[in-house]
User: Fold this.
Amino acid sequence: SQTIHQWPATLVQPVGSPLSLECTVEGTSNPNLYWYRQAAGRGLQLLFYSVGIGQISSEVPQNLSASRPQDRQFILSSKKLLLSDSGFYLCAWSEWTGRNSPLHFGNGTRLTVT
Amino acid sequence: GNSVTQMEGPVTLSEEAFLTINCTYTATGYPSLFWYVQYPGEGLQLLLKATKADDKGSNKGFEATYRKETTSFHLEKGSVQVSDSAVYFCALTVNTGNQFYFGTGTSLTVIP
Assistant:
């Protein structure tokens, strides 16, 4: 069966510090991978998605970036965090086979920028 | 374009009450429809799905029917429990399935 791992679960970082959140998927090949952000009490905002190694689509302009160095690894980064980067970050994956495949989410990372 | 509209929350119900959370959509192409549930401090979990018109998705006592004529996918449960307290998201994907469109979420609180 497929599993998704996302870490760390919680993170407190000062403004201006770098960020690296990692997500890996097991039990599937060539998944579509996604990073979402959820502000407190708000809905989901798609940040990045990837349909293959090195292929990243950015949905919103910001100081965040994403990379996919391996087929089942997706990394969210920032060189300098802003207070507004605080939130709940969710990694997700879906099968590449088309519209019938749902998204499967990790347990999320709670990021607090101080 | 593609979008999902959910009823505004929060919704507060007594235990064993009937639940309906409305969801309507617009889509270019033929969408698949999903309901997700998010418990406090956790990621989203797939609750149920439907991939074609008149399909009924069901899980854990929850049901939703894909209504193409009314572009709706309302979530229902006959008797809610305290453990159903969570935020519920309606979502769709179309065509290649690369992109998902979510509603804003509906918070449900069930009181004993």
The mean pLDDT of chain B is 94. Residues 53 and 66 of chain B are 5 Å apart (CA to CA). The two ends of chain B are 41 Å apart (CA to CA).
